[in-house]
């Protein structure tokens, strides 16, 4: 096979099940949870299986084929429904279907499987129709079915679980599916009023295929061949060239010619141009072979002048053990694979004007030998992307231009867990830019569709429960220039004017004001963020948690104290969630500046970012002997908040053992004082000072300061409770959460979220109510 430099073609994804571990599987740099990003959604009550998506020619309307329904949605916002049409199965057909052993509730329904444009004013729609496949025309003006009820046999599967694919070419439907009720007769056919054709029912032609994708490749009239347009079918079938104890699955690409008219005597009303070849996407050095095709995407270059401009990437899976591997693989082929069998300039010069004039010997050879010896191999003889522990199900690819003028093919690959991976090849390495959770219930992505309209680029994903619309990039989520550049997203660039990360296809800013480095070099970032820090006050012997927000899955968190790196695992420190720092048994020596840094490795260099800065002060307060902790008042605005504890103070703190994992919610209470002094714990006779204190609190009566002098020290102690207290921007002290170890605040305005902002829990008792309840008890 002669290979040529590709200028466009096909792109697909490979997914496989394989038992061996692979060290080269990349990890998504950022994971967006369902709650982190805004996604438009569409779901109609009691409608399921949104498995067919079609974009209108003007890219303004998204058509969705579901179970017994077709919807027209706004392509800009799919939550806006424009039209709907229902195609339900009659009760009589349901009963006949159930008599054949099928489920009345799940199988004997009408699953839309074919949704193709038929001119500018209609759609060609086919459904399983309770195992009686039927096709009809949907008028786009009235959005109603015309009731033609054409036989869908050979165009649409009988069983909704059977594989299928179709493409409309110049008003004629080319389809790959099963031809009978049992699904035992596979067929690739052209439904034409003047020249219908189909494959030969023979194992060498199709052997238990699972159809995946079909599309047409146009030939230029001024091309080297001046040949015919070709329709390609992608599928997986049982091998016919190898024999094993079990069925060996092989991915294939088959091709037929649009101008094929069948044979005159041999192959009458059968394809004379049918040829198929093996698709190879493998990692030979790791014995990884991806051999079950999942999905294919056609990436069309703006100019296909070169005759060898065909490129592909495939989706496949293989079962060998319990592990799962997902792969995206680029393929290409030259004239040897795609040039034979069609009537071209050379054939016409030999007086073969159509397939009807081909010799019987030639047609008999085609009939007996549909499999080509040549295979379609990966570009650069390697996969584009391999990911462990994931099964890729769908793929779309968008070609976009970066700020430096380089074009990148960005792959959007759906998984069986309801996530979307966005990946690009950088410096001969796969980089998964981000992973987005599309569906809350982790349901498989059944179909993907790309809308690459300039200025509004979206990816639509269909599942059993609904459709989700996601932008091609979440640039606005990168808050700093460093974050924007480190994402290495060809869609995103940092704008020095707006001080924001922006999508290139949505900005009018001149390139001189934008910063983008696909290498991840952050040295060009001149917009420095204001230094911010959080100030904390803690009690001696307590436990502190210092928070740090880290988005990158490729970076590790490094904590520094007074500019010296800390060993985060040990009796003194521990990490919570691999990010937040716990400090046990606080002492005066723990006071100082703590920094949380992100350390991210990019090929031969390391990038450090300061994510958070904390100033910690540990206070040692003198204590007076007391039997218990007494009420305390803490001003907050014009209110006086109270917290009274009548229980003895807990014992000394427990030390975190060395070598233990992260400790969540750990608290180290201070040692309890000797049980002396006056106690306000409810009893038969309440001391006078306690009654005065309670009266002042509940009745608002002002008492002389001397009346409370003996409790003054106790009040100050409870002001600094087991947690801590915080002071914000020089303001009044604020009440602490009862976390057992920490209170924090922002000392300066910062992009760092103040996760330690304090508030009372909803539904909880106020300090006054707690005091009153305990007094009554």
UniProtKB/TrEMBL annotation:
SUPFAM superfamilies: Immunoglobulin, Plexin repeat, Sema domain. Residues 722-731 have a biased composition (Polar residues). Its main location: membrane. Residues 656-667 have a biased composition (Low complexity). Residues 19-472 form the Sema domain. Residues 510-608 form the Ig-like domain. Residues 1-23 form the signal peptide. Gene3D superfamilies: Immunoglobulins (2.60.40.10), ligand-binding face of the semaphorins, domain 2 (3.30.1680.10), YVTN repeat-like/Quinoprotein amine dehydrogenase (2.130.10.10). One of its GO terms (cellular component) is extracellular space. Pfam families: ig (PF00047), PSI (PF01437), Sema (PF01403). GO terms for molecular function: chemorepellent activity; semaphorin receptor binding; transmembrane signaling receptor activity. It is found in: Membrane. InterPro entries: Ig-like_dom (IPR007110), Ig-like_dom_sf (IPR036179), Ig-like_fold (IPR013783), Ig_sub (IPR003599), Ig_sub2 (IPR003598), Immunoglobulin_dom (IPR013151), Plexin_repeat (IPR002165), PSI (IPR016201). GO terms for biological process: axon guidance; bone trabecula morphogenesis; leukocyte aggregation; negative regulation of cell adhesion; negative regulation of osteoblast differentiation; negative regulation of transcription by RNA polymerase II; neural crest cell migration; ossification involved in bone maturation. Transmembrane segments: none annotated. SMART domains: IG, IGc2, PSI, Sema. Keywords: Developmental protein, Differentiation, Disulfide bond, Glycoprotein, Immunoglobulin domain, Membrane, Neurogenesis, Signal. Residues 751-760 have a biased composition (Basic and acidic residues). Residues 643-683, 722-777 are annotated as: Disordered. Belongs to the semaphorin family. This is Semaphorin 4D. It comes from Ursus maritimus.
């Amino acid at each position: 096979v002669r290979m040529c430099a590709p200028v466009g073609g096909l792109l697909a994804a490979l997914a496989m099940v394989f038992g061996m571990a692979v060290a080269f599987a990349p990890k998504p740099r950022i994971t967006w949870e369902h709650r982190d990003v805004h996604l438009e959604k569409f779901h109609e009550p009691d409608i399921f299986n949104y498995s067919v998506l079609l974009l209108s020619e003007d890219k303004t309307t998204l058509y969705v084929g579901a179970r017994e329904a077709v919807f027209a949605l706004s392509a800009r916002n799919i939550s806006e429904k424009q039209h709907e049409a229902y195609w339900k199965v009659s009760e009589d057909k349901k009963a006949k279907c159930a008599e054949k052993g099928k489920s009345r509730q799940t199988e004997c329904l009408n699953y839309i499987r074919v949704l193709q444009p038929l001119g500018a004013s209609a759609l060609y729609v086919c459904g399983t129709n309770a195992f009686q496949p039927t096709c009809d025309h949907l008028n786009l003006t009235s959005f109603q079915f015309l009731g033609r009820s054409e036989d869908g046999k050979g165009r649409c599967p009988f069983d909704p679980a059977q594989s299928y694919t179709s493409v409309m070419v110049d008003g004629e439907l080319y389809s790959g599916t099963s031809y009978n009720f049992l699904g035992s007769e596979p067929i690739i056919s052209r439904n034409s009023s003047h020249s219908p054709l189909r494959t030969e029912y023979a194992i060498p032609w199709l052997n238990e295929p699972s159809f995946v994708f079909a599309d047409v490749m146009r030939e230029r009239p001024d091309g080297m061949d001046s040949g015919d347009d070709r329709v390609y079918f992608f599928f997986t079938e049982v091998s016919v060239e190898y024999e094993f104890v079990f069925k060996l699955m092989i991915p294939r690409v088959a091709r037929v010619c649009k101008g094929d008219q069948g044979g005159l005597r041999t192959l009458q009303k059968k394809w004379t141009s049918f040829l198929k070849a093996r698709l190879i996407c493998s990692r030979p050095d790791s014995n990884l072979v991806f051999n079950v095709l999942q999905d294919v995407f056609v990436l069309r270059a703006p100019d296909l002048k070169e005759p060898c401009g065909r490129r592909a990437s495939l989706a496949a899976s293989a079962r060998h053990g319990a592990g799962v591997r997902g792969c995206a693989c680029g393929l290409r082929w030259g004239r040897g694979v795609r040039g034979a069998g069609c009537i071209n300039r050379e054939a016409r010069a030999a007086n073969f004007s159509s397939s009807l004039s081909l010799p019987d010997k030639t047609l008999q050879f085609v009939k007996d030998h549909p499999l080509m010896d040549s295979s379609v191999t990966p570009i650069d003889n390697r996969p584009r992307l391999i990911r462990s522990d994931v099964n890729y199900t769908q793929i779309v690819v968008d070609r976009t231009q970066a700020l430096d003028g380089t074009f990148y093919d960005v792959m959007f690959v759906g998984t069986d867990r309801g996530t979307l991976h966005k990946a690009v090849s950088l410096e001969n390495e796969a980089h998964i830019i981000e992973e987005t959770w599309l569906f809350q219930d982790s349901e498989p992505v059944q179909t993907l569709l790309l809308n690459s309209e300039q200025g509004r680029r979206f990816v639509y994903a269909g599942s059993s429960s609904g459709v989700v619309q996601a932008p091609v990039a979440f640039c606005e989520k990168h808050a700093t220039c460093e974050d924007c550049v480190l994402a290495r997203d060809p869609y995103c660039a940092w704008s020095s004017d707006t001080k924001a990360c922006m999508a290139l296809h949505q900005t009018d800013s001149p390139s001189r004001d934008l910063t983008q480095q696909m290498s991840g070099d952050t040295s060009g970032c001149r917009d420095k963020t204001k230094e911010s820090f959080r100030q904390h006050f803690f009690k001696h012997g307590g436990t502190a948690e210092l928070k740090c927000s880290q988005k990158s899955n490729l970076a590790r968190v490094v904590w520094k104290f007074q500019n010296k790196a800390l060993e985060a695992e040990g009796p003194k420190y521990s990490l919570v969630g691999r990010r937040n720092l716990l400090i046990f048994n606080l002492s005066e020596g723990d006071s100082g500046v703590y920094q949380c840094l992100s350390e991210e490795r990019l090929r031969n260099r390391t990038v450090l970012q300061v994510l958070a800065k904390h100033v910690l002060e540990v206070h040692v307060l003198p204590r007076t002997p007391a039997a218990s902790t007494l009420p305390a008042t803490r001003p907050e605005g014009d209110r006086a908040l109270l917290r009274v504890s009548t229980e003895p103070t807990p014992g000394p703190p427990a030390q975190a053992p060395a070598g233990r994992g992260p400790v969540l919610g750990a608290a180290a209470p201070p040692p309890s004082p000797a049980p002396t002094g006056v106690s306000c714990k409810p009893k038969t006779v309440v001391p006078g000072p306690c009654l005065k204190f309670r009266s002042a609190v509940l009745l608002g009566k002002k008492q002389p300061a001397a009346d409370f002098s003996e409790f003054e020290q106790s009040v100050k102690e409870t002001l600094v409770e087991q947690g801590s207290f915080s002071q914000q921007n020089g303001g009044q002290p604020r009440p602490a959460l009862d976390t057992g170890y920490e209170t924090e605040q922002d000392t300066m305005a910062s992009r760092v979220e103040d996760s330690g902002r304090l508030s009372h829990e909803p539904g909880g008792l106020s300090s006054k109510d707690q005091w009153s309840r305990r007094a009554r008890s």
